[in-house]
Amino acid sequence: MTSPVTLALTAGEPAGIGPELCLQLALEERGQRIVVVASQALLQARQNDMGLSVQLESWQPGQPVTCDAGHLAVMDISGVATTSAGRTDPGNSQYVLDTLTAAAQGCLDGVFDGMVTAPVHKGVINEAGIAFSGHTEFLQEFCGVERVVMMLATEELRVALVTTHLPLRDVPGAITPERITQVTRILDQDLKTFFGVAHPRILVAGLNPHAGEGGHLGREEIDIIEPTLERLRSEGIRLTGPLPADTLFTPHWLDDADAVLAMYHDQGLPVLKFQGFGRAVNVTLGLPIVRTSVDHGTALDLAGTGKADAGSLHTAIRVGEQMARHRREHRKPPGGKP
After folding, report:
1. Is residue 136 part of an annotated ligand binding site?
2. Do the beta carbons of residue 241 and residue 229 sit within 8 Å?
């Protein structure tokens, strides 16, 4: 019998909707073992404000994890300064980073099979004088890897990015053979490792309108993208493209693909979010651990109202569990145990 998966869930920005999404999760029967990595005092304060009734159970590694409705295992992280919904406090910034550190280290140590992250507020952390550009970069540095890949996914579509949070004017200079090669290799390998796709089929978008239209609308496709893809094809990676992004996201192409590789953030993600906002998941590829996240922000205006939708969190948990199970199978020797 396959052993159950245990996931760490970080509650994110204390003033946002993350803490109450964790509490909403606890009100339901769960098929996964979830440990919330957060301040127990924060969770208690938020449920008091909202009139909820959740039994918060202090948890340490080695202890059993409850899946019963009305109960929530909490790995208590101290240091939260204020617990008010909707009002951010830079004094909470180190606490937020401590939750990420505890969850990630637990994954590296084998305590957790993966981590799921509720949204954080990057601006507030920076206001505290702490350089922080996001979960993805934080985990990249913490895990000591050279390159990570951001991928958003729904049940029907996966979109990975060559570049992420860059000003549009900086994107062309960042589209290099080295970056395309690293990102594509990670995407191909992690589709196998974490998603169980034996021979991934990847569609690659061009950078320019109409994929450069033979050089008339830009030469990046001719000079950089296509030669790089050709070298990667020689390694056995199944790539189609570069394709015009305005027609790539159609059934003609997508029906025969496992993922799309977009050149920049707003080339691929608006399509995916239109197709599945609220049930999409953000996945970080290239890490030695499983990490998924919700596809939305802190929603400070909704915090404490009880109106936050937990749909994306449910998806992030479900995908995290699936990724952890696929990784076990991938690591299992033929005919043996993992």
Report:
1. yes
2. yes
Is 313 in contact with 21 (CB distance < 8 Å)?
A: yes
Give the pLDDT mean for 171-185.
98
Q: Are 193 and 326 in contact (CB under 8 A)?
A: yes
pTM of the model: 0.91
**Tens digit of pLDDT for each residue in 2-33?**
788 999 999 999 999 999 999 999 998 777 89
Query: Do 109 and 21 belong together in one domain?
Result: yes
Residue 307 assigned to a binding site: no
291 annotated to bind ligand: yes
Domain that holds residue 16: 1-145+297-314
Sheet holding 291-294, edge to edge: 55-58, 71-76, 33-38, 6-10, 114-117, 291-294, 281-285, 149-153, 158-161, 259-262, 201-205, 238-243
Helix (H) or strand (E) holding 254: helix 251-254
In tens, the pLDDT along 197-235 reads 999 999 999 999 999 999 999 999 999 999 999 999 999
Same domain, 121 and 185: no
For 193, the enclosing helix (H) or strand (E) is helix 177-195
Question: Do strands 238-243 and 259-262 pair parallel, antiparallel, or not at all (unpaired)?
Answer: unpaired
Q: 265: annotated binding-site residue?
A: yes
What's the number of domains the chain is made of? 2
For residues 141 and 153, state if they share a domain. Answer: no
Segment 25-59, tens digit of pLDDT? 999 877 789 999 999 999 999 999 999 999 999 99
Strands 259-262 and 201-205: parallel
Is 216 annotated in a binding site? The answer is: no
- CATH number where 12 lies: 3.40.718.10
User: In angstroms, rounded to a whole number, what is the distance separating the alpha carbons of residues 40 and 121?
Assistant: 20
Find out whether 210 is annotated in a ligand binding site. yes
ω into residue 242 within 30 of 0, thus cis? yes
Nearest to 221, CA basis, from 232, 238, 209, 231: 209
Q: Are the beta carbons of 187 and 151 closer than 8 angstroms?
A: yes
